[in-house]
Design brief:
alpha/beta; Spore Coat Polysaccharide Biosynthesis Protein SpsA, Chain A
Length: 245
């Protein structure tokens, strides 16, 4: 993998109270480990080498746990927007000096069990300034907000989704830095609004993903993610045991 990764991990995690009152969402225990551990290990295993954590509320705790990323085989740096939260777009805009002209974007509460390489390649070949991964959702996991047809992302609108929108933002994007520089440094704005404008202009590529995602933004999501990792660990141990036999 050639691009750096920005992880948006600065939210207040209000839906996870009381768990999130004393620790940031990235450090919530999931199957015996801080959630960010699972994310960083996956990025390393996929071949990424450089990560920027966009942190906010209680972000110093994330720094203390993750450090420079060496134990994950990564180089990790930090961009913090606290106490003045800048939104997802503003947080990325502030982090640009630590990133390259193009980079991958992940949400700090999502685990995406897919191969990221074809996503990166699809973006590089698209000729467009940004790419959003999408999943056919039909309101199953959350309100569908993407019109995607014949491999084309026609429209993204999380603020006013319509019935014909059957897909959802899967949580993995690849963007060019210049889609953010129209906003001033220190300005608060939402990445979703940038995606919306790009989609209307025909400048947002889409990549369909079929595997479900896991998230820890809610108590139900946390329980499902915990079960996923426990089941995966059991399968891995069973596989190793049979291999040794």
């Amino acid at each position: 993998m050639t691009l750096p990764v920005a992880i948006l991990a600065g939210g207040l995690a209000t839906r996870l109270k009381p768990i999130s009152e004393k620790i940031p969402k990235a450090l919530v225990d999931v199957a015996g480990r801080p959630f960010v551990d699972w994310q960083l290990e996956q990025l390393r295993d996929q071949g990424f080498r450089r990560v920027v954590l966009c942190i906010g509320y209680l972000g110093e705790q994330i720094r203390d746990v993750v450090g420079d990323g060496a134990r994950f085989g990564l180089t990790v740096s930090y961009s913090q927007d606290w106490p003045d939260l800048l939104g997802t777009g503003g947080a990325l805009r502030k982090a640009l000096p630590l990133l390259d002209s193009r980079f991958v974007v992940l949400y700090g509460d999502s685990y995406l069990p897919i191969d990221f390489r074809p996503v990166e390649q699809s973006f590089l070949h698209s000729g467009k300034p940004a790419l959003m991964t999408v999943q056919r959702n039909s309101d199953r996991w959350d309100k569908s907000n993407v019109l995607f047809a014949d491999g084309v992302l026609v429209e993204y609108n999380k603020r006013a989704p319509r019935p014909e929108m059957k897909y959802i933002d899967y949580g993995l994007g690849v963007v060019s830095a210049d889609i953010l520089t129209g906003h001033g440094e220190g300005e608060a704005f939402d990445l979703g609004d940038v995606y919306r404008e790009l989609s209307i202009e025909g400048r947002l590529a889409g990549y369909e993903v079929r595997e479900r995602f896991y998230e820890i933004g809610s108590h139900q999501g946390l329980a499902e993610a915990t079960q996923y990792f426990r089941d995966r660990d059991f399968r891995d141990r069973d596989f190793r045991g049979r291999g040794e036999g």
